[in-house]
Design a protein that fits this description.
Layout (H helix, E strand, L loop, with lengths): L3 H15 L2 H16 L17 E4 L4 E3 H5 L4 E5 L6 H12 L1 H6 L3 E6 L3 H11 L5 E3 L4 H5 L3 E3 L2 H9 L4 H5 L5 E3 L2 E5 L5 E6 L9 H8 L6
Parallel strand pairs: 3-4, 4-5
Antiparallel strand pairs: 1-2, 1-5, 3-8, 6-7, 8-9
């Protein structure tokens, strides 16, 4: 059975085969510095209460976390943007499990900083059945402890490969969330929390689902 991490590792292997070593070194430096910042230790942890949020989906409809949690446990997937092949691959893995999520009376949303037009395009292109919510300025992701600012040298690299993050996100800050997966119980308790400074590493969806479907999540 091919795991999500297997798929992500294949993307990494292909990238290392195609991209020049000195260009790869830019991303490796950024990951190492982000890890050294201790950001992984600062994320909202298991056992804490998740902040409430109200965001618009890719069609402009208002979605409230309180309304979703009234119906069941909530899986929240923070992603960087549709320009990130790792994020898209991960969201597709969750897409394929969405039937199981709904059968067990849980819900799911994806949250990213990109503008609604970008999210609408991504949801349609990849057949995402769950709401893709727009988090302008990363204000919700910041409450979960996930935000960092892309350093200048990495900005230049992104622009060189036509990833214009200020354009995609509709604001100039160059702030991004580290990808994160949360499971939130109906009483807002965090049941599962995992985020990595290395964007190439993601938890297996089955790990989060086990938390969402445990008896204490109801």
């Amino acid at each position: 059975m091919t795991t999500l991490q297997d798929q992500l590792d294949e993307i990494t292997a292909n990238t290392r085969h195609l991209v020049q070593a000195e260009r790869l070194a830019v991303g490796e430096r950024a990951v190492a510095e982000l890890f050294a910042s201790g950001i992984e230790e600062k994320i909202l942890p298991v056992g804490d209460l998740a902040p409430e949020f109200t965001l618009n989906d890719s069609n402009g409809r208002t979605v409230r976390s309180a309304d979703l949690l009234a119906l069941g446990p909530l899986i929240v997937k923070f992603f960087r943007g549709r320009w990130c092949s790792y994020c898209v691959t991960e969201l597709e893995a969750w897409r394929d499990l969405y039937g199981t999520i709904r059968e067990r009376e849980a819900l799911m949303v994806a949250i990213g900083p990109q503008i609604g037009r970008q999210s609408d395009f991504m949801a349609g292109q990849h057949g995402l059945p769950f709401p893709v919510l727009c988090d302008p300025g990363n204000l919700v992701a910041e409450q979960f402890g996930l935000i960092y600012t892309v350093p200048d040298y990495h900005r230049a690299y992104y622009l060189s490969i036509l990833v214009n993050i200020p354009f995609v996100n509709g604001e100039k800050s160059w702030r991004l969330p580290i990808p994160a997966t949360y499971v939130i119980a109906k009483d807002r308790r965090v049941l599962f929390a995992e985020a990595h400074a290395d964007f190439r590493v993601r938890p297996e969806p089955e790990e989060a689902l086990a938390a969402a479907f445990a008896p204490h999540s109801r």
